[in-house]
Amino acid sequence: MNWDSIAADYLAVADEVFGLLRPRVDALAEEIAGRLRDGNKLMICGNGGSAADAQHMAAELVNRFLRERKPYAAVALSTDTSILTSIGNDYGFEQVFEKQVRALGLSGDVLLAISTSGNADNVLRAVEAARHMNIYTAGLTGGSGGKLAAAVNDLLCVACTSSTPRIQEGHHLIIHALCEKIEE
C-alpha cells in the first residue's frame, strides 16, 4: 500500500468536491430543500456501499445532521429486505428500486441515484420510472458518469478513475455537504 498515493488521490477528490463541484452541490441542495419545504420527499437508491450511503443520508435528514429541526421526508430504497427480496425473486433484481419509485414516488419528489460507475441497471430503471412520473432526478457517480450522466436532471460526478473507494469518499463529502446545506 502506498500511503502517499492514496493521500494524493483523496486530496484531489476533496479539491474537486469543494472546488469544481461546489456550485452544483449548492444548487442541488437548494433544489432538494425547496422540494422538501413544499411537502415532497427525497428517495435515495444505490447498491452495496452506495446503498449504505443512501441509508446514511436518509438518516441524517429524517433525524438531524448538525441542527435540531423538524424531520425531513427522506427514504433509502435499499432498506426493506422483504420488499427487495420479493421484487428480486418475482421480477428480478433490476426492478427493486423501480417498483419502489412507482409505489412511493409522487410528482415533485426527488430521486437521488447513487452509482460509482453510473451503469447499475436497477438504479437506471429507477431513474427512468422517476422521470416518467415528473420526479426530479439527480445522480452521484464517478469517472465519466456512465449511462446515469445522460439519464438524470442533475449530475454530480466525481471524475476520479483511479479507484472506487476514492469515488465513494467523494460521495461521502458531497452527501455531508448536501445535508449541511439543506439544513441551512
Q: What is the fold's blueprint, element by element?
A:
Elements: H1 3-18, H2 22-37, E1 42-45, H3 49-62, E2 74-76, H4 81-90, H5 98-104, E3 110-114, H6 121-132, E4 136-142, H7 148-151, E5 154-158, H8 164-183
Helix pairs in contact: 1-8, 2-8, 3-8, 5-6
Mean pLDDT: 96
Helix content: 40-55%
Sheet with most strands: 5 strands, parallel
Give the strand content.
5-15%
Instruction: Compute the CA-based radius of gyration.
Output: 16 Å
> Ranges with pLDDT <50 over ≥5 residues?
none
What spatial form do the alpha-carbon principal axes imply?
A: globular
Straight-line N-to-C gap = 40 Å
What is the H-and-E element order? HHEHEHHEHEHEH
Strands in their spatial order, largest beta sheet: 2-1-3-4-5
Number of strands: 5
* Structural class computed from helices and strand pairing: alpha/beta
What is the helix tally?
A: 8
Overview of this protein structure:
This protein has helices at 3-18, 22-37, 49-62, 81-90, 98-104, 121-132, 148-151, 164-183; strands spanning 42-45, 74-76, 110-114, 136-142, 154-158. It is of the alpha/beta class and 184 residues long. Helix 1 runs parallel beside helix 8 (164-183), helix 2 (22-37) packs across helix 8 and helix 5 runs parallel beside helix 6. The mean pLDDT is 96.
